[in-house]
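Researcher: I'd like a candidate sequence for this fold, 430 residues long. If you have to choose between options at a position, lean toward the conservative one.
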């Protein structure tokens, strides 16, 4: 069995065995919660049951070889469990257990023994939180999470387990297909996870939290495959400061390396690098809910000069183009907006046509008639519990009508995440 085939079994298992105590019991509960449809088995020689499932005393007594296992026992015991699982023909295991190479030299020795015991099994971790597959309703996950089953979405491959929990709780309407936390990456590198996810056509983009890369050539080859398959890679790189690099070493035994070299590598491979979790989420959402723009030409509309100025500054900082309006577009906009509005890109269309569906549609259609790779409409929605939303929903529909007329890639943008209510996000994604 190849590592790739083993990882495929682990990511979408027909049967799961959990080994351990409370953390293992929580995996059973999370599998039920997400709607896992396969077989669940439990191993614990000291308990009769885990979360209502009868316990087998050891791996040898399991009725079948599981596709996937979740291991939450002390390090030395974990090695024995992995050896027994490999002997049964298990596909792969999430090793939740810590106390390996992230700790000290003795831990490094234990980690090598773990790998030797695994043979052809795929090992995620050790010192990791687990895997969630929202597409096929699998949760090898001993904790709460905020995602929901979906039919397509962005996959996250993260070195930090707590980042996995946090990002799963996002309220940005980013559909998630997988959350994979890799911990020490003792067995599989980032490239292995990228390759496995590229085989799943339901994955729209792959977000990577990288503390350090040990296999740069293989990572580069996988990134090129992603480019060829048009699956964007988005990276949140941490450990850039001296102190951050020290924390990285103690956290997952990864070497952070030169930040300049990482920047050069990501640029060369067409990988979008983000500096914050906000950027990371919004970039993945851009790549998931809309066709990716093919160039840098942007048109922007807002009913505020302040927002237009912000867009101009952001475009300048990011190297985006705000091309001037064509004469026909400028004339059409002047006909709708009149003499009191300065007709320019980015456009502040003021509020003279606000609340007028026909005029808004004409304004947005004229703007989208230009040769833009993407058109933005900046709207901050009011609080639904205190304000009437009809005019904002009217502007939303006017943009949809203009998009339908022109075929232009169009997006609604809010200046603050809390100014973009869930109901509006869900309508727009549909």
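Model: Candidate sequence:
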């Amino acid at each position: 069995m190849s590592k790739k085939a083993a990882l495929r079994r682990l990511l979408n298992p027909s049967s799961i065995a959990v080994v351990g105590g409370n953390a293992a019991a929580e995996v059973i509960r999370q599998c039920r919660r997400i709607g896992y449809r396969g077989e669940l088995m439990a191993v614990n020689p000291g308990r009769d049951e885990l979360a209502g499932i009868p316990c087998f005393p050891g791996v040898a007594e399991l009725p079948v070889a599981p596709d996937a296992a979740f291991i939450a026992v002390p390090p030395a015991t974990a090695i024995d469990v992995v050896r027994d699982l490999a002997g049964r023909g298990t596909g792969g295991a999430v090793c939740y257990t810590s106390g390996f190479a992230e700790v000290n030299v003795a831990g490094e020795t234990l980690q090598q023994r773990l790998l030797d015991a695994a043979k052809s099994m795929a090992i995620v971790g050790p010192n990791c939180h687990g895997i969630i597959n929202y597409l096929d309703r699998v949760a090898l996950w001993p904790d709460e999470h905020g995602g929901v089953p979906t039919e397509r979405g962005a996959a996250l491959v993260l070195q930090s387990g707590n980042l996995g929990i946090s990002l799963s709780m996002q309220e940005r309407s980013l559909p998630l297909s997988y959350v994979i936390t890799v911990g020490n990456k003792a067995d599989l590198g980032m490239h292995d996870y990228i390759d496995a996810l590229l085989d799943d056509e339901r994955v729209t983009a792959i977000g990577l939290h990288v503390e350090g890369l040990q296999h740069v050539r293989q990572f580069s080859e996988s990134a090129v495959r992603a480019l060829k398959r048009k699956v964007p890679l988005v990276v949140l790189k941490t450990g850039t400061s001296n102190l951050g690099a020290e924390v990285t070493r103690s956290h997952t035994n990864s070497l952070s390396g030169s930040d300049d070299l990482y920047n050069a590598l990501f640029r060369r491979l067409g990988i979008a690098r983000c500096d914050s979790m906000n950027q990371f989420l919004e970039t993945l959402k851009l790549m998931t809910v809309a066709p990716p723009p093919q160039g840098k030409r942007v048109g922007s509309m807002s009913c505020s000069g302040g927002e237009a100025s912000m867009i101009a500054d952001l475009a300048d900082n990011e190297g985006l183009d705000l091309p001037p309006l064509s004469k026909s577009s400028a004339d059409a906009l002047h006909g709708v907006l009149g003499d009191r509005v300065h007709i320019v890109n980015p456009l502040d269309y003021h509020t003279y046509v606000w609340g007028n569906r026909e005029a808004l549609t004409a304004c947005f259609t004229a703007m989208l008639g230009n040769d833009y790779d993407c058109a933005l409409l900046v709207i901050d929605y009011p609080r639904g519990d205190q304000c009437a939303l009809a005019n904002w929903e009217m502007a939303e529909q006017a943009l949809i009508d203009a998009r339908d007329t022109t075929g232009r890639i169009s997006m609604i943008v809010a200046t603050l995440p809390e100014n973009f209510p869930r109901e509006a996000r869900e309508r727009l994604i549909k």
